[in-house]
Write a structure and sequence with these properties.
Blueprint lengths: L1 H15 L4 E8 L25 E9 L2 E8 L6 H15 L6 E5 L14 H5 L4 H23 L2 E2 L1 E8 L5 E2 L1 E4 L6 E2 L9 E3 L6 E9 L2 E9 L15 H14 L4 E6 L5 E2 L1 E2 L4 E2 L2 H16 L3 E3 L1 E13 L6 H13 L7 H15 L5 E11 L2 E5 L3 E2 L1 H10 L4 E5 L8 E2 L10 H4 L7 H18 L2
Parallel strand pairs: 3-4, 12-13, 20-22, 21-23
Antiparallel strand pairs: 1-2, 1-5, 2-3, 6-11, 6-17, 7-14, 8-9, 8-10, 11-12, 15-16, 18-19, 19-20
This protein binds zinc ion.
The site of zinc ion has 3 residues, from loops.
Length: 454
């Protein structure tokens, strides 16, 4: 009997041994009209749809080991949503929660999620349409993973790194003689002004092919999706155009998934020429860069997904009694007066920090390696580009794809040098100076572990 069971086990092993399998699916998560939108410090109820929002999933499997990457066309992800979705995925698909990455593209034209701060009142996310939307999400995410898992088929992975130059800008600018960085200028004077930091022009392209046909692609670029603006129509912003074009051009039926890179301080406002490119122009530029990279696509040899996930406790920032009193005063008048984005962001951050002083600021760092040459890193916040570039450079993998706003969010995560330069991202950062470098350090250690694992 035992011997027979052993042979059955061997047969099962044999059925999958050697096969790296990939499945992909997408599920529509477009909300109904009237759903509170995120992305800005005001209430906007959705009215109409420019293009639909999706939960897009790629599932990887080899020798019974699974990993899943889910990207939502949403402004980000919050931990309760991630926890609920992972639980549903574990129950319905048998994939362990810590082997699932869930990130948001950061579209500013999609529904808001509750953050447990003043933002919930500002955006009215806890109104019945907001609650209805949020409660349905974990089920829809699990459904996309289930459908992707059902499509698992032996696959090859190939990688190419493209470049899209001149469409993304470091939205913080330093002016001669001025200590504070200027935030999102329309047009700069090159004689006195210079970008406070770099951009990351790299376009990551990972393609999975089954039976000679591309079935899934994972695309990566670092830039805020804010090109649709603060209207009330639903849109996936430029990632929607980008992914649609890549699928149309390279494999109708292919599920193209866009993970946003470290774009905390990167936007599309072209302050060199004073231009604002449209959603269509941005998505098309990225699809063109992908086309150009396609020719240099190289197959990588894959292994069973190696996953690590670690909870890091970051130190919350601290504020003076004067700052707290000022924030309380502003909060009391927030709904009758318009204070502007930066003071609003600062107030929300200070009051949340005071309220949650005894609650640990948890940040999950997750890595998923699929090959000796390819790993995906998930970071929970709006990470400054300098940190992303440093992480890619120091990574032991030839190709490292970083997904920000993944598995929750601790808000903006600036690099150390940016803190003294102040302005929007700094006044709204939850973590103390050094938080970003700490996340990079943990990610590099985890990358080292999965690289060495056998
Ligand atoms: Zn942002």
């Amino acid at each position: 009997m035992i011997l027979r069971l052993f042979f059955c086990f061997l047969l099962i092993l044999e059925a999958h041994a050697g096969d790296f399998r990939v499945g992909a699916a997408r599920v529509d998560i477009t909300p109904k009209d009237g759903t509170p939108l995120g992305g800005f410090y005001k209430f906007r109820g959705s009215e109409g749809v420019i293009d639909p929002l999706y939960a897009k999933t790629i599932v990887f499997e080899k020798d019974g080991a699974h990993a899943a990457i889910v990207v939502l066309d949403l402004s980000g992800t919050v931990r309760p949503l991630v926890a609920a979705a992972r639980k549903a995925i574990q129950e319905q698909c048998g994939i362990g929660g810590d082997h699932v990455m869930i990130s948001g593209t950061h579209t500013h034209s999609g529904p808001q999620q509750p953050r447990g701060s003043l933002m919930d009142d500002i955006t009215k996310v806890k109104s019945p349409p907001g609650v209805a939307y949020i409660s349905a999400l974990p089920g829809l995410i699990a459904q996309s993973v289930k459908e992707a898992k059902e499509k698992l088929a032996p696959a090859k992975a190939a990688v190419a790194m493209g470049k899209a130059e001149g469409i993304s800008f470091n939205r913080r600018v330093l002016r001669e003689g001025v200590k504070e960085a200027i935030w999102q200028p329309q047009k700069i004077n090159p004689a006195t002004d210079k970008p406070a930091g770099p951009v990351d022009p790299e376009v990551g392209v990972v393609v999975f092919e089954s039976d000679g046909k591309p079935t899934a692609s994972l695309l990566n670029f670092a830039m805020h999706p804010t090109s649709v603006g603060a209207g009330t129509k639903i849109s996936a912003d430029y990632p929607g155009v980008f992914t649609k074009l890549v699928s149309e051009r390279h494999g109708p039926g292919m599920v193209s998934v866009f993970a946003n890179g470290c774009c905390g301080n990167i936007n599309h406002g072209d302050y060199i020429n004073g231009k604002r490119r449209s959603t269509l122009e941005l998505g098309t530029a990225l699809a063109d860069a992908t086309d150009a990279a396609w020719a240099s696509m190289k197959t990588v040899s894959t292994f069973a997904p190696r996953v690590r996930s670690e909870q890091v406790t970051l130190q919350r920032r601290s504020f003076t009694p004067e700052q707290i009193a000022k924030a309380k005063d502003m909060a009391a008048n927030m709904f009758t007066k318009n204070f502007g984005t930066v003071p609003m962001a600062e107030t929300v951050c200070i009051l949340e920090t005071v309220e949650k002083q005894s609650v640990p600021l948890l940040a999950e760092v997750q890595v998923i390696a699929l090959s000796d040459e390819l790993a995906i890193v998930a970071l929970p916040g709006e990470i400054f580009v300098e940190l992303g570039l440093a992480l890619k450079k120091a990574s032991p993998f030839k190709h490292t794809i970083i997904a920000e706003l993944a598995n929750g969010s601790v808000g903006y995560v600036p690099n150390r040098e940016a803190y003294p330069q102040g302005n929007y991202e700094i006044v709204s950062a939850r973590g103390e100076v050094g938080s970003g470098e700490r996340l990079v350090e943990v990610a590099l250690r985890l990358l080292g572990e999965v690289k060495a694992a056998r």
